[in-house]
Amino acid sequence: MSAVAPTVEAVVDAAGGHVRTLMASLEERLAELAAGHGELLARHGGDTIAAGGKRLRPLVVFVAAGELPDDGGLGLIRAAAAVELVHSATLVHDDVLDAADLRRGRPTVVASAGRAMATATGDLLFSRAFAELARNGRRDEVRALSTASTALARGELLQRTDAFDMDVTVERYLRRCELKTAALFEAACELGAREGGADEASVGELAGFGRRIGLAFQLLDDVLDVSGAPERTGKRRGADLLDGTITLPLILARQRSGDLAGLDLREIADAAEGESVCDAIEATGALEDARRVALEMVAEARAALPPLSTAQLRALHLIAAGVVDRYA
Amino acid sequence: MSAVAPTVEAVVDAAGGHVRTLMASLEERLAELAAGHGELLARHGGDTIAAGGKRLRPLVVFVAAGELPDDGGLGLIRAAAAVELVHSATLVHDDVLDAADLRRGRPTVVASAGRAMATATGDLLFSRAFAELARNGRRDEVRALSTASTALARGELLQRTDAFDMDVTVERYLRRCELKTAALFEAACELGAREGGADEASVGELAGFGRRIGLAFQLLDDVLDVSGAPERTGKRRGADLLDGTITLPLILARQRSGDLAGLDLREIADAAEGESVCDAIEATGALEDARRVALEMVAEARAALPPLSTAQLRALHLIAAGVVDRYA
């Protein structure tokens, strides 16, 4: 299991027994969705869904809702499933673009079934996400999810456009993180809050919490790409560098090191050289700085929360902490 | 312009002045959507949307609605835009999978910007489709579109799985056509009918009309791949054969010709040899038979229509006729 699992457990404990039930129901629903739409989805999409991961975004949906709603959580489970399906769809498509062989230690769809199958599988997961959420019959929820999935695609476009561009600014980097990662956490919070019956002001505040922890999540991910981490076992350090993805650690390190300032990512010959660049970035202290930015965002996320029950607040704080504790 | 344009004109004439206005408003809305979601969508998605094509599916949405609804057609325009966006998204992704250079005589997104950009552009168009339709606030409409877009992806998966499999049956071929093509025509009719205020029985009947003309549309497309047609200028005959796509003309021809029965599509060396196979298929009379199946479906489509105004019936009949008159 990934290094984050204990944190998810702690959140579920803090949030109350109904979240444990919801997480179990979510797995059942995802398994149904994987089995219920043709043999090919069952094989490829099903593998993707079943491979799981942390189910962090569904957990955010559930915790953002607070108490169990009057419908017994039916609407919440659909919202959580929809968010996870969109997330899975983007992973499948990202793996196609990266021609990745492994994801979470298992063969990717593109590796096992080819580009065509993987592209169609991703499209199918997208479609099922909206079908699932539409069952809630709430226009504001569909809008929130489609805004997020638009952002994911725009973030991906931006990342590809900016690849190998050493002039990417911190501002532009953060904008990319907002699109690529934060938007879906934001939607997860919004969907949970709406299903939980929060008023419009609280929905907005919870959405802001989601956006900030999503940003912090991506920042830490980018730090982990340079520093290495247990949960990245099997993935070499510096994968982003080799892809030409400019991240905050690199931007900060370049401001402090003449060698790195002159670096052209295209000139990195192989993975071993990528790891040397990681060492050079680490030596500048840029990783600590990037972590501090992430911690600051988490603090802002917590500060922006509306008044909530003690149990819900505690669970949300644990989620926020887990996002930046992944290197521990 | 394509060979179908005169038919679209005839349909618009028959349906009444409000459809002409709706078609113009649709173009405006699509242009807005292309411009309003970031420079990268404006460039790549915008090109795709602007490149246009016949806008046959939006036309189906409008005609299925009948009279102009009380909202002045706002909901209809959103529905039509959503259907066209889903259609555009699948074209962009299909071009990625086929590594196609040209579509409608213009460079494809994948040709001009690469696979990564094209995959993300398709995802983005999908997302915007659901965002646009969600504005109507109708769960049944979102469900109809997500069912259709799921079908499109399943059809694409099925086509790739069955590629080069000479044992594909007529039944399996028709199932693929239903998923790949008919489902979106069905959704177009359903969305139009719902916005037009049709009762549930009529919605179902209009949806059935859409499904049947969609099937006929795909059948004719597959005939045109073998026979050649003006609207396919620039595309060589036999493209499906080279891709390993088994279509009705080939299935029928194999039943009549020992040479074709022994054919393995993998052994077709080049486009010239593909054209020879097209000639062999044509010589068996299979194209006439496939056309007859399509005509039969169009007749069934017309027969299944509910009672409607004379103008609406006339426009629907013209659409149905246009679907199979494309070789004329």
User: How do the strands of the widest beta sheet of chain A line up side by side?
Assistant: 1-2
Strand content of chain A: under 5%
The level 1 CATH classification of chain A is: Mainly Alpha
Q: Main beta sheet of chain A: strand number and arrangement? A: 2 strands, antiparallel
Oligomer: homodimer
Class from secondary-structure proportions of chain A = mainly alpha
CATH architecture tag of chain A: Orthogonal Bundle
Q: Say how many strands of chain A there are.
A: 2
- How far is the N terminus from the C terminus of chain A? 15 Å
Walk me through what this model shows.
2 copies of one chain form a homodimer. A two-stranded antiparallel sheet of chain A has the order 1-2. Chain A has 328 residues and is mostly helical. Chain A has a single domain, classed as Orthogonal Bundle (Farnesyl Diphosphate Synthase). The mean pLDDT of chain A is 89. Helices cover 74% and strands 1% of the residues of chain A.
Features:
homodimer, 328 residues, mainly alpha, Farnesyl Diphosphate Synthase, two-stranded antiparallel ribbon, 15 helices, 74% helix, 1% strand, globular
Compile the SSE list and pairings.
2 copies of one chain form a homodimer.
Chain A: H1 5-15, H2 17-35, H3 39-51, H4 56-65, H5 74-98, E1 102-103, E2 106-107, H6 109-134, H7 139-161, H8 170-195, H9 200-227, H10 239-243, H11 248-254, H12 258-261, H13 271-283, H14 286-303, H15 310-324
Antiparallel strand pairs in A: 1-2
